[in-house]
TrEMBL record:
This protein's name: Ribulose-phosphate 3-epimerase
Database matches in NCBIfam families: PRK05581.1-4, rpe
Biological source species: Helicobacter enhydrae
Primary role: Catalyzes the reversible epimerization of D-ribulose 5-phosphate to D-xylulose 5-phosphate.
Keywords assigned by UniProt, alphabetized: Carbohydrate metabolism, Cobalt, Isomerase, Manganese, Metal-binding, Zinc
Binding positions (substrate): S6, H64, G140, F141, G142, G143, D173, G174, G175, G195, S196
Binding residues annotated for a divalent metal cation, in chain numbering: H31, D33, H64, D173
Gene3D superfamilies linked to this entry: Aldolase class I
Annotated pathway: Carbohydrate degradation
Length: 214
């Protein structure tokens, strides 16, 4: 089980200190939520800020694009060589083309699906991506409540991946904490994103440890 703290819930006035604390927390990736104010009703970081975060982070970046104009943003953020670069399939007509574009940059492509988006839409793209991110809240904000139907969705996606003998990872994002980490692991999640749970705790290492222990 890998853990990716979402920097969205960090104290932005102390960004360097926050990233440094995550570096030694035992987490595996640093999750970066890029929002454009169009695809989602919120606005976050551009590439200049993410580049500075990258300079301080010893963890590989996991960049989650919640944007329109995906191709344009892929070009901007691919230059920062994240470990994963993910985009929402709801927003893209040419999913395969974008996946290929990300791969051509030497980066692992990942697709994201909103809570209401059916898994059937992933069937023909699954062999081409390294990860699927299942949203367990409506994208746009940290600190929302986990949507319980996600558990069944993870289970079904795990079956689809295993039945086709694929190696694609499953990431879950939104409302994740030590309280549901165990259930998510049991149904087949590989990477858990946690924002408010980790940054809302006083000891980040302990929070990450609690998620693993559960
Ligand atoms: C929501 C973002 C999440 C968010 C998770 O749109 O994609 O990554 O930061 O925050 P929590 O863990 O607080 O739900
Ligand atoms: Zn996210």
């Amino acid at each position: 089980m890998k853990i990716a703290p979402s920097i969205l819930s960090a104290n932005f006035l102390k960004l360097e200190e926050e990233v440094s604390r995550i570096n030694v927390s035992g987490a595996d990736f640093l999750h970066i939520d890029v929002m454009d104010g169009h695809f989602v009703p919120n606005l976050t970081f551009g590439p200049a800020i993410v580049e500075q975060i990258k300079q301080v982070s010893t963890l590989p970046l996991d960049i989650h694009l919640m944007v329109e104009n995906i191709s344009f943003f892929v070009d901007l953020f691919a230059l920062l060589t994240p470990r994963f670069l993910s985009f929402h399939i709801e927003e893209e007509k040419h999913i395969h083309r974008i996946v290929q574009k990300i791969r051509d940059y030497g980066i692992s492509p990942a697709v994201v699906v909103n809570p209401h988006t059916p898994l059937e839409l992933l069937k023909y793209i699954l062999p081409d991506v390294d990860m699927v991110l299942l949203m367990s809240v409506n994208p746009g904000f940290g600190g929302q409540k986990f949507i319980p139907a996600t558990l069944d969705k993870v289970r079904q996606l795990r079956e689809m991946i295993d039945d086709a003998s694929l190696r694609c990872l499953i990431e879950v994002d939104g409302g994740v904490s030590d309280l549901n980490a165990r259930e998510l692991f049991d149904v087949g999640a590989d990477i858990l994103v946690a924002g408010s749970y980790i940054f809302g705790s006083t000891d980040y290492q302990e929070a990450v440890c609690k998620m693993r222990k559960s």
